[in-house]
Amino acid sequence: MRKVSSKYSTLLEYERFKMIKIAIVGTGGMAHMHARNYQKLKGVKLVAGCDVNPENVKNFCKKFGIKGIYTDINEMLSKEEIDGVSNATPDQYHKETSIAVMKKGIHILCEKPLALNYKDAKKMVDVAKQKKVINMVNLSYRDSFAIHKAQELFQNGTIGKLKHFNASYLQSWLVSNQWGDWRTADTWLWRLSKDHGSNGVLGDVGVHIIDFLTFPAGNIKSLHCQLKTFDKAKNNKIKKYKLDANDSCIISAELQNGAVGTITATRFATGHINDVSVVLYGDKGAIKVDLANSYNTIQVCLGKDINPGNWKTIKCKKTPSNYQRFINSIKTGKNDQPNFQTAAVVQKAIDACFVSDKQNKTIKV
Given 103, 125, 140, which residue is the final one in a domain? Predict the structure, then answer.
């Protein structure tokens, strides 16, 4: 039992107001996003960074003023006083690093995807429940105000019974240099190679778009998926990378509520740098979220606007980021969304997509 300062009457009150100490594991590009967001929050202190690459972690910690520098996660967990960990390691290391953190009774925010398959994701859910730690996944498009407003309107029955949907995540970095030259940068090449831990566009951004749809509209009941890997280089190989991970996916799906529609994702969408959208069509109206236009507004077609087919724009109230939700969950002891269970359900749908593509048939999720 930790000692409670005399300034606070209970341990819970102490937990709500004390400085929350955070460590970041994996200090690549996404870790910088985590660090910047934590530094915006009051009552949060970055105390340690860990990466198997000594130079990376040293430079990262210097940049963000972090004192604890480690290349071994177990050493960090044993030496540092930590309330929570942000896991920004590559996808294939999420399971082992997250479980190591949770077994120490430390709260965790893990990058997406939670794991490379549902079996591993379920194991992580089980450990989180066993250790009773706050567990969240950084499905980053939950940070948009728009998707929370869409979820609120849908759950309130504003558009009636959902009949149809369209959801898409369109990127163009395989046909443009907006994010750098993927042909020469390891940062992008690993995302095209199964041997380097990539599940392709489905595993990378498919996780986002499935969550972006199911958060407001409900989980998937069944699906049929087609995956496509295109030729991108001579023998589809650059340096040590075999470019064999999928580049595009098309999913036709039925939700638990009976609605049907399509989910698409690709890296070959010329003219779309990083566009995420979902449209929900009900028997009393429709909701459109298009993050390429705005993170803070949605469009609706309701009431008297249905017959002429007019869409109106609604401004959305501010909602907390995933980082704020994680810190608030640590303080209150109440696990906010999206948690490990939510991400595991998304991973189950991803697994079903791979089975569907291989067997060319509809799969129940």
Answer: 140
